[in-house]
Outer membrane protein OmpA
Amino acid sequence: MQRKYVLNAIVAALLLLPVSVGADEFSSLLEEADAVRAEEFSPAAYAATKDAVRKRWIDEAQIQAKRAIANSLTVSNRFSKLVESRDRMHVSGAVDARRDLAERAEEAFSRVVAAVESDDLTRANKEAEMAALLTRQAEIVAAREQLTRPTSKMLAEARKHDGNRFAPENFKKADEGMKKVDRLVSSNPAARGQLVNESQNSLKMAEQSKEIGMMGNQMKKNPGMLEKWVVSRDNDLHAIAAAIGINIDGAKSREDQAAMIRKAIEQMLNGYETQLADAHKKIDELEGNSAELGEARYRLKLKREAEAKIAQLASLFDASQVELFLTTDADVIIRMKAMKFPSGSSIIPSASYDLLELASRAIDLFPDRVVHVEGHTDSIGNDAYNQGLSERRALTVKDYLDARYAENNRSITSAGLGEDRPIANNEKAEGRQKNRRIDIVLVAPPMKN
């Protein structure tokens, strides 16, 4: 009897213990929550999830994780503009630029989150108005510091070295560009792609103005430098002319020499294209002008040209950051492996703009191709969330490229593909990291009749 009592007590105690589950199941719960930024958007439920996971209470962990995910999706979807403004605020370095403003904005955002966690959406909407105002203020201050301050400092340097006298056009354009950025920051801080492009261009012109000013002052002190510079320029022109087999000695001015070189290069290109067209025509005649063979030859030609250009670009890219490769349809894919968006965000980190500028050099080598930006995610999170996130990220990159090629009339499109096209195993963390990516596809042009 005593033994039966003890046995029953042990069984009862075991039934009261938390269910034992594998570490993978707990890890999956937290990954789902992390994917939708639950630690930021539902901190109370997220903390409760972690606590239940630590205690290995699977039922409680599931309840709290679902609550954290639901709250986070509410914040992401209902207050999407506020979330993006907050992300831009952080990417712009608001904490360093104006800590007081950034902290007030964060406090206001935390009140929105708290209201959502309390299921009080009316209060959340009211708190969101103040949070949006404070976040925008902090975002604008930080963006000015990040995007106009460097140009302002460089213009001061250029003026110190007489860049405004020796390079007045560059100096003026840099100053106008800086003021344009300042106005755009105030009116539309969300136009980050255009802001970064305008800022980079203004800074570059200010730097050139400074360099020209320094050169001008050196030539004032040592006039003989001017002669060396002119002779060096002449030598460069003659070297280019010799390389393409023309004589430019008869030209009256350097402008005429440059015009002769340009004309000779254009004639060479036209000649090559004519020869190539004639060769294709003869091949078509010999092979009976088969449409299928013509398409195959055309694709092969595109692939060979693309391979040669990719070989030229190889030295520009670190394979761990950017990968270039060809598809069977002769499309060129620029895989932005090192572009790391903040979790659940479509805001491009500042460090990734240099990477996009490198990718632009690859795009420049394919002027006849449509540029198509694809956003991809891993499988963590629900389908709708991943689809929307991939679309926003692709669109953000498209906006940057639109601004970059504003004067070139490049055809640029974008699409979000969510989790539909994985390139690695989503069951492993390493695979999921590879699947979270931006692909810039340079679409092979169709064969013309």
